[in-house]
Amino acid sequence: MNQLYSSKLLENAVSEFSKLPGIGKKTALRMALHLLKQDEDSVRQFGQAVIQLRSEVMYCKECHNLSDTEVCEICSSPGRDHSIVCVVETVRDVMSIENTMQYQGVYHVLGGVISPMDGIGPADLTIESLERKVAAGTVSEIILALSTTMEGDTTNFYIYRKVKHFPAVVSTLARGLAVGDELEYADQVTLGRSIINRMPFECTFNKK
After folding, report:
1. Torsion angle, CA of 81/165/199/83, rounded to 10 degrees?
2. Which residues of the chain form CATH 1.10.8.420?
3. % of the chain at pLDDT higher than 70
């Protein structure tokens, strides 16, 4: 049964909130009613934060992570080891690895994985800029930290073929993560150990 609204403005707000991932109509209604109970300044700050997020956030020109500046804090930090590059699928994976506090290198965000079923090929990802980065000769190790799915493994192998002729070592996370796991859902201890105990990519390939 469709919800009847006494206010068209409320209905519009609920419609917009329900477009967010995981938000149904009932939850959207609770959120809208909650905002109505707040003072105007609080709601204005909320709205301004969302507008600024969309209009001002940018992608780091070095690693493609989300950033408030042209180069993100991780890439611009002198305390990070810029010779070690951890290749991840999404910005959420960067957050997951950072939360382990077990990694001090930098990142490269692909923006997804190769998935022909979804129409995503190598050209749709940032693989080319990763290859240029490795070709520059400043990278000593590439850590392939993609999800342990068929698409993740396919992307790992594609990248490996692209960079294997460079001097950089190519490694991958230790298989503490179960097959099919996505990094953002892995617990911090398991993920941290997988990073510390990473292994040469060739070893995992030879076992297949």
Report:
1. 0
2. 8-56
3. 90
DSSP secondary structure of 142-201: EEE---SSHHHHHHHHHHHHHHTTSSSEEEE--TTSPTT--GGGS-HHHHHHHHHT-EEH
pLDDT tens-place string over residues 66-75: 999 999 999 9
CATH class, range 8-56: mainly alpha
How far is residue 121 from each of residues 62, 151, 163, 205, measured CA to CA in Å? 21, 11, 17, 21
- Asked if 70 and 61 count as a contact pair (C-beta separation under 8 A), the reply is yes
Class of domain 79-206: alpha beta
Region(s) of the chain under CATH 3.40.1360.10: 79-206
**Could you tell me where the DSSP H helices lie in 73-149?**
73-76, 91-100, 127-135
> What is the DSSP-derived secondary structure letter of residue 140?
S
Structure tokens at 145: 């930290």
- pTM (predicted TM-score): 0.83
Encoding tokens for residue 122? Answer: 């190598």
What is residue 72's three-state secondary structure?
Answer: coil
Q: How far apart are CA 47 and CA 188, in angstroms?
A: 33
